[in-house]
Design brief:
By secondary structure, this protein is mainly alpha-helical. 68% of the residues lie in helices and 0% in strands.
């Protein structure tokens, strides 16, 4: 498969983790990043497709609109979710729902689903 060379900025701590993984696996930095993208992109695509469904959006809103609910669910699962992370998830989820509604409206008008711009879709639950 042909490859495209690109230049991106990545958090220094994250890149150090990627480098450690590459060294542990005996792979290149590129191979580790490409594998991560191959695993994450389909999940994010599926999440965005799910967000087109009003029932999914409603369920996601019930779970994510209140950081206290997120923290309670985490506690029930015996997982710790810091308040700041719960608030971030709630903000991102609200933005994802709004973009999904706009995308659905665009699809109805044009017959095509609009794709999010670069960096626009974060995927709150992924």
């Amino acid at each position: 498969m042909p490859k495209t060379q690109t230049s991106i900025k990545i958090d220094s701590d994250l890149m150090a983790r990627v480098d450690r993984l590459a060294k542990m696996r005996g792979e290149s930095r590129t191979a580790v990043i490409e594998r991560c993208l191959r695993n994450a992109v389909p999940e994010l695509e599926q999440y965005f497709e799910n967000m087109q469904n009003p029932a999914f959006r409603a369920a996601q809103q019930l779970i994510t609109r209140n950081p206290k609910v997120l923290r309670a669910i985490s506690a029930a699962l015996l997982e710790e979710l810091p308040q700041e992370e719960a608030e971030r998830i709630a903000r991102v989820a609200a933005a994802d729902r709004q973009r999904a509604k706009e995308s659905k409206r665009s699809k109805k008008k044009t017959g095509k689903r609009s794709k999010p711009a670069d960096g626009e879709f974060e995927g709150a639950l992924v």
